[in-house]
Amino acid sequence: MAPKNPKPSKYGFNTLAVHAGGAPDPATGARNVPIYQNASYVFEDVDHAASLFNLQTFGYIYSRLSNPTVAALEERLAALEGGRGATCTSTGHAAQLVALFPLMNPGAHIVAGNKLYGGSVTQFSRTITKFGWEATFAEATDPASFKAAIRPETKAIFVECLANPGGVVVDIEKVAEIADEAGIPLIVDNTMATPYLCRPIEWGATLVVNSLTKFLTGNGTSMGGVVTDSGDFDWGRNDKFPSLSKPEPAYHGLTFWETFGDLAFTMHSHAIGLRDLGTTLAPMNAFLTLSGLETLSLRMEKHCRNAMEVASWLQSHPQVAWVSYAGLDDSPYRLLAEKYLPNGAGSVFTFGVKGGFDQGVKVVESCEIVSHLANIGDTHSLILHPASTTHRQLTEEQLVAAGAGPDVIRLSIGLEDAKDIIDDLDQALNRSAIQAA
Ligand SMILES: *Cc1c(COP(=O)(O)O)cnc(C)c1O
Fold it and tell me: For tag attachment on the chain, is the N or C end more exposed, with fewer CB atoms within 10 Å?
């Protein structure tokens, strides 16, 4: 099935992952992107300073707004997602705020899928209400429920394509059509899939957010986030987005859409979003993510192979009630996974233990190689019992809706030998069963 909005590139994915944004350093010839670990930049003269502040000349003023190491990473990430521009942020959660910021105003509303990272459920159901923003959660597996939740003041739809934690695959082409009919952008959190497995912009997404903390950096060394803009949305098609389509009082009346066209969103996110929210990515972290990205496809292929092996093995374990992995033949999401995730169904999935909450706690505490912690997308295999950790602030109803019921265990399969991951899970499951008996 061909994507409706293909983004062909002169170079293949792996070449972009190594080269995009990474020309040899003009000052020294350094082959890798240097770490520009500095806060500010000398102006040539007053006119130069004025043209920088007026956004008439490209250049650097202060690293809260932009920095050469971070800019190299932004160019690489935009290339990998097939987007026009990208804005890096201090964390994935910051990227979600920076993505919404140009679109929203007090009283504005978003429709979000209900299969989301636990922190995103809390951010949308609680924290954003302090800005006067509001979210309605639609059934992620039912595109029609997004349409039903849209109101006149709705400014965006937000989903994860490969949704956390249960490996649910959302039909993003259908949801993108619903967003388009309503004249609003679709925002896709692509953290679990990465652009190697899924390219949401090609299926009609306007904005893609990613936590760099996970697979993109790939080794659990840095926090970071990014918002990538497709450049395809006409911000002037209705009057819903005055920060982009009308004179912006926060930037002496500049009209971003008229001035910057397909770069309007990215320019606004740097000139106002990062300037005033201050959620800037550190240059050292950008350097670590640039290095990590160079091996993204190799890592994702191995993550997916290992995950498939572990998931298939778990299906026949006597202590396991069910396994939810979109790569398995009997998964209800297999067809959607073949369409949107042709290179593999990722490495994060859930399974249920027969003994419920108590056995779930015992399994995570009995693992030796597989680490019990709240992260995904690491070289190390990770295990978590969402109901007692990441999702514990959710109500019972939200827990079940989010696919994080009391018996659910989440795995993020790393890059170890699959046999060692399996042996460790086997001893943990068997020990937890004996203890439970
Ligand atoms: C981790 C994660 C986030 C948040 O990213 P941080 O870098 O931890 O702020 C958002 N969405 C998904 C799917 C995640 O896994």
Answer: C
